[in-house]
Amino acid sequence: RPPASKEAVARLPKQRVTEELIRELGGSDVVCTVCRESLSVGDELQRLPCGHLFHPPCLAPWLGQHNSCPICRHELPTDDMAYESRKVKEREEAEAEAGRRNAVSHNEFLYI
């Protein structure tokens, strides 16, 4: 997989850690899953579209090599047009296949 688009990475929202955020994330033992350091009030974090949070200096090298979240593998856009085209084609083929599987065959009856 290619790296994440630099533009997509630049648009990722940043936020500061607050007491409330630490509570929302499960308490005082919350860590950045990349560096494994505890999150402290005032730390800057970057939020991926999937919702996972990381220290920006921890996330940048990962996204420089991968286009996905280090935790759940949710993909970000890339600058690789061939890769993006292939993803669209694969998604369309999967949707078409799902439609074929759900279609009524010639010897089935559909009662409404």
UniProtKB/TrEMBL annotation:
It catalyses: S-ubiquitinyl-[E2 ubiquitin-conjugating enzyme]-L-cysteine + [acceptor protein]-L-lysine = [E2 ubiquitin-conjugating enzyme]-L-cysteine + N(6)-ubiquitinyl-[acceptor protein]-L-lysine. GO terms for cellular component: cytoplasm. Keywords: Metal-binding, Transferase, Ubl conjugation pathway, Zinc, Zinc-finger. Its EC number is 2.3.2.27. It comes from the Eukaryota. It holds the Pfam family zf-RING_2. The keyword Zinc-finger applies. This is RING-type E3 ubiquitin transferase. It comes from Tetraselmis sp. GSL018. The gene is AIP2.
